[in-house]
Amino acid sequence: MAMPLTRDVISDAYLRIAPHIRHTPLLELGADPFGLGCGVTFKLEFLQHAGSFKSRGAFNTLLSHDLPKSGVTAASGGNHGAAVAFAARQLGIPAKIFVPEISSPIKIATIKGFGAEIVIGGARYDDAQTACNAYAEASGALLVHPFDAPETLAGQATIGLEWERDGLVPDTVLIACGGGGLIGGIAAWWQGKVNLVGVEPEGSCCLHAALEAGGPVPVDVHSVAADSLGAKRVGQMAFDIAKTAIDHVALVSDDAIRNAQKVLWRDFRIMSEPGGAAALAALLSGAYTPKKGERVGVLLCGANVDPTTIG
User: Which residues of the chain have pLDDT under 50?
Assistant: First the structure.
């Protein structure tokens, strides 16, 4: 698949993956649900197969290639690995997933539950990616990158397409950022038609750092959301789109993320992982301040969490 990531490319990706994914719903909360002077709509992408948006990119990648007998492989903090494992199981091919030591037990259990082989690839995500790359080269397995590949971005971009077709298109959409594949893909679909704001933890902010530096740079990662938003460097493809297609990146504290998790459970009975609650955290904490009467969309992107950690 060639760049640029056009609407036609994204539409083709949606046709490819639609038989294999869930069309996730929108939840309109009504006028001013949080007392901020704005309307809010949730996109319930955590209801996607394997518990996160990652299944879109995983299916698009697998369905875009001739799959080798050695199967597929991926490095992941958890959600991407679960999505690749699920897609591989559905398509009847083996999967080997490399995870870092910081991956949560529930995410590792999810990956194993989909029948993939698990390998602990080092202390942090980058260590797991290095081990995964070496395995792919030696075995010939298809490497499924979590964010810096055109097939991945096109798959994640279908969230924007789906949202637009369902109506209720907001003025602004808040999107959590890890390696950038999610916001990069959605930004490619909306192409300036919607105000897009990235949301990153203060302790894991590779897109924010890249925008300040003028290109991807390594960052330290220390956040409660590190297992899903813990990329040390934003993907180049996502950065090339985001640098002109998003408004800015809002930074949120770990405490704000934990509070958003609690609000989602208390008020909506939504069990969200930290990365999945980060976008709402920006709205509730004031890291993003809406204009009066603005329609704000919040992408709730992941729910692979141990319920006992919500508190």
Answer: 1-2
